[in-house]
Amino acid sequence: MTSLGGKIALVTGSRHGVGRAIAEHLLSRGATVVGFSRGEASLDHANYRHYRVDVADASLVQAAFAEIARNVGPVQIVVNNAAVLTSQYAMIMPPKAARDMLDVNLLGTFLVSREAAKMMRRTKWGRIVNIGSMAASLEPIGDSIYAATKAGVATLANVLSKELGPLGVTCNTLAITAIESEMLNQLPREKVEAIIRNMPIPRFAQADDIMNVLDFLLSERSGYVTAQTIWLGGIN
């Protein structure tokens, strides 16, 4: 596993769960990591910079990137992890909950990717990885909007791969399965466990499962790998 020393990586939703685990992993590989979340930092490291940003707010995203350019440097790696989830039948889904998922999960991913791409255009190298979900494939009851947003981030990566490929930037999606996290705790445990039992590899994901694929996608040797969705656990 090669070092990411000298690389600046941005992780959205870095305050807890998968986002924090990814930020810690990239720090361990030598990267300078910038974290976005709506809350205060939960990670203390010499090479970590935290910005309180709602990724659904275009003006806040643009302002944060301007500050990063002044104080940190050009972002070369982006992991779009920030997401919100309300699991509820469509007929009783509050419109605000649906809007929040669309704004954070999909629009936020677009806004962050767009600003990062402007930096990557100058450095002629970049890696954008969107964190997808098994919900996009399994389409579970109650997850209509969430699943649609996660399908959307994969399509977004595929289209951006065509726009940004000539600039040396790859765009891929890492579709994860259920992993112990605050988001998972919002769902009925029996519902999640029933889904897991029917998977080809019937177990919860571990952090290393995610980092293994992430390392592959961020590698210098993966410059010819783009517009791909990699599904964990055998889901497709």
UniProtKB/TrEMBL annotation:
InterPro entries: NAD(P)-bd_dom_sf (IPR036291), Sc_DH/Rdtase_CS (IPR020904), SDR_fam (IPR002347). Pfam families: adh_short. PANTHER family: SHORT-CHAIN DEHYDROGENASES/REDUCTASES FAMILY MEMBER. Belongs to the short-chain dehydrogenases/reductases (SDR) family. This is SDR family NAD(P)-dependent oxidoreductase. It comes from Sphingomonas aurea. The lineage of its organism: Bacteria, Pseudomonadati, Pseudomonadota, Alphaproteobacteria, Sphingomonadales.
